[in-house]
Every structure is written in structure tokens, then in C-alpha cells.
Write a structure and sequence with these properties.
156 residues; alpha+beta; Alpha-D-Glucose-1,6-Bisphosphate, Chain A, domain 4; seven-stranded antiparallel beta sheet; 3 helices; 7 strands; 44% strand
């Protein structure tokens, strides 16, 4: 099993960052390997919510499903895989820092099949991808002027 942890400080209030990153419809705007994301359960995101994603990584397209196992707005959330080529658990921790937010992402990954053979390489690449994604997220949220919950992109 491999562990990844990265963080970024975003010059936005904790509630705004939490609301944005916990809305799966926003994920494709900052996660570069995400092709599509779909919430499978009714209602707002909460413990027990199920999400299906399609990703493309290293030229391989794969589908995975996960379940929200912890949801404590605006401070933390956790997930675990329920389907896909790898077993994983992960989480977000958000900490307020004088009007800014430190956003910490952790993950434990165990690959199967193709992903098991290259797990060390896959983990290093996933860590670099996460760093890039956090940079995208920081740039995206710090460029916004409208309140969270009504994100339609910079041309809205």
C-alpha cells in the first residue's frame, strides 16, 4: 500500500473551499485526469453518498466508484473505494489560516492488475498529478470573485 499526502494554502475562506471541493460537479475543473464524475445517490453529499468517476491516467481509461465515509463541514471528509482497479481510502482536511485555507489531501492506494505491477511508479506519478491539481485549484479559487455555490467559470 502506498501513501500520498500533499497540501496547498488557498487565499479563500474555509467554507468556500470546502463547498467547492466537496461538489463533484466541480472536480473536472481542477482534476486533470478526471473525464467524468457522477453522484449516484439522491440529495446532498453526506456520509454514504456514492460517486462514480471515469479517469484517464497514463493513457489508460478506467472507472472507479467511491463512498463518502466521513463528512464534517467545513473541516474534513473521507472516502473509500467500492469499485475499480485499485483499493483506496483518502480524505480532505481543511484548516483556517487567517482568512485563507490550508487544504490537505491524503490517500492510501493499493493497486490491482496493471496498477499493482507499477504501484511505486504509479504512486510517484499520482503524487505529482495531485501537486499539479492543487495548483490548479488554488489558481481557480483565488481568481474567483463570486461566492461559492454558483460557480460557472470565469466567463459567467
Amino acid at each position: 500500500m502506498s501513501k500520498i499526502e500533499r497540501s496547498v494554502v488557498i487565499d479563500r475562506p474555509i467554507g468556500e473551499v470546502f463547498d467547492f471541493v466537496l461538489d463533484p460537479t466541480n472536480d473536472a475543473s481542477w482534476q486533470t485526469t478526471l473525464v467524468e464524475s457522477q453522484v449516484l445517490t439522491e440529495g446532498p453529499i453526506r456520509v454514504g453518498s456514492q460517486i462514480r468517476e471515469v479517469r484517464r491516467f497514463l493513457g489508460v481509461r478506467f472507472e472507479l466508484g467511491y463512498e463518502v465515509t466521513e463528512y464534517e463541514a467545513p473541516r474534513r471528509s473521507s472516502i473509500k473505494s467500492v469499485s475499480g482497479p485499485m483499493q483506496f481510502t483518502g480524505g480532505y482536511v481543511l484548516e483556517s489560516r487567517d482568512g485563507s485555507t490550508e487544504f490537505i489531501v491524503t490517500g492510501d492506494i493499493e493497486g490491482h492488475g496493471f496498477f499493482k505491477l507499477g504501484e511505486p511508479v504509479f504512486t510517484r506519478m499520482a503524487a505529482r498529478e495531485l501537486e499539479a491539481n492543487l495548483g490548479h485549484l488554488k489558481d481557480l479559487l483565488e481568481a474567483r470573485e463570486e461566492p461559492a455555490g454558483d460557480w460557472r467559470g470565469p466567463s459567467a
